[in-house]
Amino acid sequence: MNKRQKQIIEFAKKNHSFQNKDVVVFFDDKYSRETITRDLSFLSHQKFLHKSGAGAFVAYSLSDTYSSLEEVDIQKYFETPYFQRDVKEIFNFEIFHILGNDIFTAEEKEKLEKLQRQFINNFSKYDSQTIINKEFERIMIEFSWKSSAIEGNTYSLLGTEALIKNNVIGKGKTKEETQMILNHKDAFNEAIQNRERFIKLRSADIEYIHSVLTKKLGITKNIRNKGVGVIGTKYRPLDNEAQIREMMQKMVNLINKKASFFEKALLVSILIAYIQIFEDGNKRTSRMISNAILLAHNSIPLSYRIVDVEEYKKAVILFYEINNISYFKRIFVEQFEDAVNNYFK
């Protein structure tokens, strides 16, 4: 967007519905109706503005798509206690329509594609399968550690390495913590060994990876059939099993329609958590399925080794509450960049 188009977006935020002539007046007739028409057409085409009516009765309003992508002041947003925030407290059935448009900006696409080319170039220099396996093992260990840490696991990175490589159980660690780490290892290996399975996503694959990640943890394997609350937010996921299953299938359909595997990986990593398909283990399942998609498309999985756990959780809650994906998207891009710059170098 150019400066003028950004000003039109700011105008739209303050005016629920407006016409071309209103924008012309807003700019004090500095620009012609034809120029403003081109700007409004561009913003409509980008799905930032919703266009309704025809002819002299055409009107515009800010779209939900723009609201989902707009940058949010995270510090200011979370200064308000969660029980005082004005949020979407129930599941938004329009979310799949909202996210049907492009998620990444042209600049973000260019950056991700450049990083992908860099990874392909780096990877092509490895001619030893032994070294390749060791590097994927390093990713798997760091992912198992950090993904588990997001869930409250207290294993250190070195403790995770000792457990995975030498079967050394951490001193003072619970049986559940140990099992969680080992489950991550098994799920990661499933994704590595069955990459073609995740080129086109299926609901059954999500359920299977969840079953691997939650093995021996006392977590029900099936689709959730009871209500759940989420710590730190007023958002309440669906509590009807049939609706949950329907939303999971809509999510799968959306992801399979996306041409960009980056969008596929990003969306699955937030939508499984948003739907809360299972009674527990949703976020770890979303991260693992996201990595499985990246691997299936000959890309590099994310270890999340440098992610700040609290900021990650804030990004998830921001999406839960106002369906804004901007902060979560930023974290995704940062983690992908770190993966390319840290592994297979």
UniProtKB/TrEMBL annotation:
Can you tell which superkingdom this protein's organism belongs to?
Bacteria
UniProt-annotated binding residues for ATP: D280, G281, N282, K283, R284, T285, S286, R287
Q: Which PROSITE patterns match?
A: FIDO
Q: Where is the signal peptide?
A: none
Residues under site feature: Important for autoinhibition of adenylyltransferase activity: E151
Q: Where is the Fido domain?
A: 201-334
Output the InterPro entries linked to this UniProt entry: Fido, Fido-like_dom_sf, Fido_containing
Q: Which Pfam families match?
A: Fic (PF02661)
Molecular function terms, GO-annotated:
ATP binding
The protein's name: Cell filamentation protein Fic
* SUPFAM superfamilies noted in UniProt: Fic-like (SSF140931)
The record, for PANTHER family, names:
FIDO DOMAIN-CONTAINING PROTEIN, FIDO DOMAIN-CONTAINING PROTEIN DDB_G0283145
What keywords are annotated for this sequence in UniProt?
ATP-binding, Nucleotide-binding
Q: Tell me which Gene3D superfamilies the record gives.
A: Fido-like domain
